[in-house]
Known about the structure:
Elements: H1 2-13, E1 19-35, E2 38-56, E3 59-65, H2 71-80, H3 115-131, E4 135-152, E5 157-175, E6 178-188, H4 195-208, E7 218-224, H5 226-238, H6 242-246, E8 265-269, E9 292-296, E10 299-300, H7 307-313, E11 321-322, E12 331-332, E13 337-341, E14 344-345, E15 352-360, E16 371-383, E17 386-390, E18 394-399, H8 400-403, E19 408-417, E20 420-434
Parallel strand pairs: 7-15, 13-20, 14-19
Antiparallel strand pairs: 1-2, 1-4, 2-3, 4-5, 5-6, 7-20, 8-9, 8-13, 9-10, 11-12, 15-16, 16-17, 16-18, 18-20, 19-20
Amino acid sequence: MIYEIAEKAKREVENNCDAFEIYIDESKLIELNSEQDRLNFAKEEIETGVGIRVIKDNKIGFAFTSNMDKISETARQSIENTKLNKRDENYSFAELEKVTDVKKVYDKKFNDLNLNESVELLKNTISQARDSGCEVTGSGFSASECKSLILNSNGVSIENKETGFGISLSVTIQKDGEIATAYNSASSRFCDLEGEKLADEVCNLAKSSLNSKPIETDNYNVVLDYYAAIGLIQTFINAFDGENVARGRSILKDKIGSEIANPSLSIIDNPLLEKGMATTKCDGEGSVSKATELIKDGVLNSFIYDIYTANKEGVKTTSNGYRGSYLTTPMISPSNLEFKFSEMKDLSEIKKGVLTTSVLGAHTANPISGDFSVEASNAFKIENGELTEPINKAMISGNIFEIMKNVEGITSEIRQYGSFIIPKLLVHDLRVVGQN
């Protein structure tokens, strides 16, 4: 069906513009949410949409529709919309290249999954949390299948087919007048999520966070659990955005070839990663996926680009022009970010430190300077290599670009959360301000 739609759109635009790009999205979604331990939202949805971009007289136009009877009108509108934009010779569409196949991004089990089975999975997760003595404050489950096709006037025609599954849980627990909360989530390309295991992990974290004690203000070795690490290094990764670099909004501008991180660290943007949540044959512009080494042995090696920004900067696209759906035009975004350390530290090597499971306020970090001040959440003291008592409220402050120069990986499971594929991280000499 999507090829028929694409051909219809192609016939409408090919003789009326200088170049065209047709993006078609066909998605199926099951989504559930609970408030406390009661299901309060359930959705099963099928949607097909078309986004059309054209270039005419060096001006770009875009229009979209979810009504397959309005392909002709949408095509004409995309051409009409070029009149609203300025001429820019940097506009172009993806060139034809050999496509690399991707592995383990589709689970046939999606076709057998129905709403009732999804509800049962979420209910089992909630029941496990309740049986563990926790009160569920919220939970969610989603399953999706997406088929997309991108076709353009340069001969590009690439189809992607993928599935994704996710589950989340937040809980609270009360004891002797004290309240502790905890949250976690899991995602996979396959229907292999273990909701009951997630419930045990979240409840154990909440229980461990009870009876918290204040911590003395000092500089500590801080272990960033997965969510805490992601919260802080998101600011670091934003500095690799080619548009931010071009506009002078990145501290990394003019630092290609410079050492900006621990020499034991390499970061790879890898859209070809097997089973990766952002794995795809091409980006949202039809540029064939390729791995990009952002940092190699601590040295800045590359930024990430979409076609337009790459053209402006006189470089090649890194195939990082992604779009959320047919409703939007491509924007620069990372794919699967692999954090690889040549050496790892063990928790047992830390004599005096703090582990924080997540941080609150990471979005307030200065995106250019990298300065941050965040609240540690579900945090614990580390004494002689062991997690000891939970910590009362504490603030952690520092500079993300400075701490990346000596950041180390902690021996732990490598997990993917969003774009990030990371171990737990160890940062030295962070300021921790205790609060009663």
